[in-house]
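fold-stage: in
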Amino acid sequence: MNGVPKCNYNILVDSDVINNGRNLAIAKVIIHESIHAHLTYLYSTDQITLPIGSTDTDFINLFNGYISFLSTSNPLGIVANTLNDLQHAYMQRYVDDMISALRNSGLSMGYNTSSIQMTDDYLKKLVFGGSMEETSLFSEVYPEFNDREEIHWLGIAESLGVTQYYIDEDGSQSIGPISNVVNSNSPCF
């Protein structure tokens, strides 16, 4: 293999998501987990380290280690006033790349470019739902509590394929999935 080590990483997806999740939610999970596998590879080959005092290789710690690495080495030459600004610039690029990958997945599944599911707003909400809610960027991009709650529950609705009910500062709310049910005639079934 030309001196490149062979690495195998298993991606486990919750059976509820596979069996009940909507197609964009499943695509988002696979994209997210693929990035997690890449971060795990970078960690296992000593290219990134965990934040000081951390021993857990969960997504957030690996992600923060990667952002720290990028901010220190700054391979894209991003100009920023502070290290914090530089870290957030790299985090935003990560989010933008995930949105792009998710949009490409959606278009290949037959979504129209003008559909609500292909808007930056909707795709960004899907990307941030889940473990990305734990990043500092999430609270900065969505400073309003109600927006964060909507994103949290939208992610669950899309992942489980059912309407979710929750309470925010405006009272009782509901949100349902709007992406498509996975086609049982697809080659994956």
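fold-stage: in (second)
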Amino acid sequence: MNIRMTIALPMAVVICLAWAGAVFGLCFESAAGGQLRSGRMTAFLPKILDSYVNSVPKGAVYAVQTDEGYYFKICDEADQVDYFIKKWAEPKFPGGTWAPLYTTTNPAELSGYIQEGVYLIRRDGDNWAIWNFAAGEVPKSKLYVQTTPAEARIRVLNIRPRFSQGMELDAGRYHIEVSAKGFQTDKQWIDVKPGEDAILTVRLKPAG
């Protein structure tokens, strides 16, 4: 038997949740009935993300921030996610869709991307991604890595696709490795901004 539950979390203590047993369609929300809480969600974001990591539903954090306050839901049940979108997102952006904003391994950086709007936050391994619901598509960015020696091998360590010059990426931080036989391997992070080309120049040092 499937059991659907929605649990409101008092913001005085956003708890780390664990659940034993066969529970399906379990969701946690900041206030019963989708009511807004006064203030800024960013003040509680570390606790919200901690609850997401330790709770039963591993779908995503769905959140809205307005002038009047904020509301969030941690959920993996399709019909409740659909209800959230119809209540908060589609009235503001009819025909809109989720668009990627930023990807990082440091969840503390996500606060800087939450203004007024409707957001989705999801964890995938070590990566955290934040999306917003928008009418228009957020432009991709292109990554170029210029190396010395020119035949050096280039890898992007925190994503699955193989590197290619001018590859299109969502905005975020990317871990670049450059290596070549007879040279010291270089690793560094680069910030990629929405719709802007990112160019990294790497000159390897001889080994030894």
